[in-house]
Structure formats: structure tokens, C-alpha cells
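Case study.
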Amino acid sequence: MQNCAIELKNIRKTFGPVVANDGINLQINRGEILCLLGENGSGKTTLMNMLSGIYQPDSGSIYANGEEVFIRSPHDAYKYGIGMIHQHYHLVDVFTAAQNIILGLDEKMDIAAVNDKVKDICDRYGFQVDPRKKVYDMSVSQKQTVEIVKVLYRGAEILILDEPTAVLTPQETDKLFAVLRNMRADGKAIVLITHKLAEVLSVSDKVAILRKGKYIATVNTKETSQQELTDMMVGHSVTLNIDRPKYDKPADKLIIEGLTVTDREGIKRLDNVSFTAKTGEILGVAGIAGSGQRELLESITGLYPITSGSIKFVNDKSENIELVGKTPMQIRQVGVGMGFVPEDRLGMGLVGSMGMTNNMMLRSWRKGKGVFFNKKEPENLANKVWKDLEVVTPSTEFPVRRMSGGNIQKVLVGREIASRPPVLLTAYAVRGLDINTSYAIYNLLTEQKMNGSAVMYVGEELDVLLELCDRILVLCAGQVSGIVDARKTTKEEIGLLMTTVGGSKEAN
Ligand SMILES: Nc1ncnc2c1ncn2[C@@H]1O[C@H](COP(=O)(O)OP(=O)(O)OP(=O)(O)O)[C@@H](O)[C@H]1O
Ligand SMILES: [Mg+2]
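After joint prediction, the assembly is written out as follows.
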């Protein structure tokens, strides 16, 4: 077939006893956006790594333009026009965009010519890149753009993007999709991995589904639905809803008054923020990206310098303990836990070479319990996380580094939730998690709330905030623009508060 760029036939790939891919057939066409969908650990990244020359299949064949090919290195992949944008970027911080783009090419360093070619690519697809900007000055989304331009610069006709939207704001995602649509119009073949079904439905032409390493089917996006895709991914019919019970005796747990912080440039990031988080409650935090969400959580956990205001923690004896001035370690010991998704999962409190149990131990050890002699508690925690979140791993001793991205994430978030802190702060907890696991996380957070924890949930998806939370605090430009009852509010009301500095005065 003429518009078929790449075809995979009966591909198998194992890692020791783990069968990552088994009998996979896939067709990637020019002028099409194909979404690759599957639960965490179903084999998506492994499969694409065989097209980008990182792994070779144990058996099966790969055809490029109708001819069988053997892709033994990333260099080989480029020869066949295949370029992959990985989830973790490989840019050199101290280099400019242009220097990174030509890195490793034999080309002469004629920077003016490089800049011209970069500008051409940008104009053609609607990118914005400043070739002279240094990587360390770039946002995550700008770095991603450089990675994409780098691949196009090398002449890629087939682009594979592994969860590019996991680290983007909704606005940045829209921009990326506009670029992908331009590439499609230009005849490129695009493979996109994402767990967000709304994105799959809005951007793709076809969807290929993997389940536990096996190929299930490829369907036309126009002819499918979220429910059908979910059922195919999971293998049986699933109902996804969030139970939102009410806790009967909420009490103040975290009392924040007049919190103000300024960044290094002297700009106010939080401006006179006051609110109370209660036991038995999930307090959502909504806002356009960069409205102060990060600074708020970092202030509470002692990671951000505070200009003025107070943060009081109410302990079991109803004593108010001031957290301002305490170190992050002291704050954690008081009982404030944080489960959030960093850009670099392995950099954040997980040791890649260790298994789940030892990674649980890291956390308990910090609590000062001296569990080096008692492995029972971390072992139980590890088993609980393994079971509750269906972590795909052969055992709790398997090095977390070898798990799939989403499964590493499950260990990270699961550990925080399982350690049951009286105050649990979460931000973007479900980034990179499949839909089933996302709901498992929502249910675990609800379980913690019903156990009497005060939970704060920072998230981007308004639908989830509306379904999961009891109250929602809305931030706009570092100020509280409203605190609303999640059972009574609407998306429109929250949307309005997100863009109204100061907001309405109904805050309770
Ligand atoms: N280098 C490796 N050594 C051992 N096992 C591996 C290795 N790479 C991947 N695996 C295993 O192969 C399986 C598939 O992993 P893969 O990363 O392809 O999943 P995925 O579909 O991309 O998941 P996610 O959505 O979480 O990113 C997992 O069980 C994983 O643990
Ligand atoms: Mg993956």
C-alpha cells in the first residue's frame, strides 16, 4: 500500500522472563496521526524503541516503504526517516537551541545556515523557537519543541512522540496538536502515545490498542468512543466513576492566613492567600498553569521562602503548630506528606536500582522509625501499593528503573498515599497514569479522606476536580479568587474565577 510508511509484523520482545511485546502487528501511514493506547506496562514504549533503534526485536519483521529493514541504532532509524521524541529529553543545558539541534551531526557549524533552516522548519509547521536561546532558560514545553525540531532537522518523515502531553499545560497541548495537524497535512506519519482519551479522540485518525504486551486492534477514531477504547484496553467492561462520600465531622487541619511569597525577581507569586484545609475533605486547587499552585504546595512543605503570613497545622491535641520557619524534614515529621509528579520521576525520591520494598523503606526511614532492622512495614506497604494500583512488576524486589514510566509513577504516588500522612498534598498525581489507575488513585485519595486526612489535590482537569473534591480553591495570579462547594459549582463558574483576579467575595 502506497501510503503505508512502516509496517510491523508479529513483533516479539522479551526482557528475561518479562514478555514486553508479543505478536504485535501495526501499520503506520503517511498523512495520519495514529494514537498508541494501552495501560501502564502494556508495551508501548518498548515497541516504539524498536523503531527508533534502541532495542531490536527477538522475532518478527519491520517494513519501511514495503521493504524489510533492520534498525540496529538510532542512526539507522534516521536512515529510514524515523525520529522519536522520548519522554525524558536529551538536551545539553548550556547549549543553545541551534547547537542542540545539530549536536552529533557531521555538519559544519555554520550557525547562520543552521538558524535559517531552523527558521524554515518553524515557519512551515507553526513552531516558535529562538535558535539562540540556551536550554537552561527554557520551559518544559520549549525544550520539547527543540526536540521535535531536532528530529525534523534530521529529515524525519515518521515522528514518534512518547507521552509528550504528560508535562504540558492544556494550552501548550493545544499548540502542540496544531503543529501535529500541520505535519499531517504535510504528509508526515505521526505516532502519538497518550493516556488522555479526550486527546486521543480530538487529534488522531486511528487508534491502535495494546493490552498486556499483545496487539488488540486498530480502530478508526471517528467510529469509536471513550468507553469502547477503555474496554479494549482493559479487556473487560469497566465503569469509571468516583464515589464522593461525605465525612461527618470535618475539623480544621491546616490554617493558612495571609500567605505571601515573592520569587527571586521580586515578583509576588502568592498574594495574601488565606484558606483552611479540613480533615475528611479533599480540597481541590484549580487555576491556569502558573497561577501559584506550585508555590503554594512548596510553601506548605517548607521548600519556598515565605515573605509573610502563617501556616498552622492542628495536631491531634488540637494545638496549632506554626510551620513557617520549619525545615522540610521537620514539616514532614509533623505529618505533612506530598505526593506529586516531578518531571524526572527517578530523580525524585526513588532509587532506580532498588525494588519497591526498599524504596518504601526510604520513606519510613525518613520518618525516623529506624526500620532498618524491621523490613515488615515497608514490605507490607510495597505489597499494598502493588495490589491497589496493580503495579506491573515481577516482584517487589524488581528494580524500579526497569519498570514502565507509569508504573514508576504508581510507586511514587502510592508510597505517599500509603504512608497515610494527616495532610496529603498531591499535584498532578495522575500524570502518565492510564485511565483505570487514575480512578484507582482517586479512590485511594477518597479512602484517605474518609480516614480523616486533609487532602489537597492540584489538578488540571476540571471534570475530575468537580467529581472528586469537596471544595475547590481557585487561584488567579497568586490570589484566591474563590473557594466553592464542588457539589454545587459548575465548570463555567470555575473557568470564570480562574481568569478573574480577586474573584468573587463568597470565599468561606
Ligand atoms: N529494560 C528493561 N528491563 C526489564 N523489563 C523491561 C525493560 N523495559 C521495559 N520492561 C518491561 O516491559 C513491560 C512494558 O514496558 P513499557 O515501558 O513498554 O510499557 P508502556 O506501555 O510504555 O507503559 P507506560 O504507559 O507506563 O509508559 C513492562 O512490564 C516493563 O517492566
Ligand atoms: Mg511508556
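Observations recorded in class. Residues 365-372 have pLDDT under 50 and may be disordered. The chain has three domains: 4-234, 247-335+425-439+454-508, 340-420. We will return to this complex in the next lecture.
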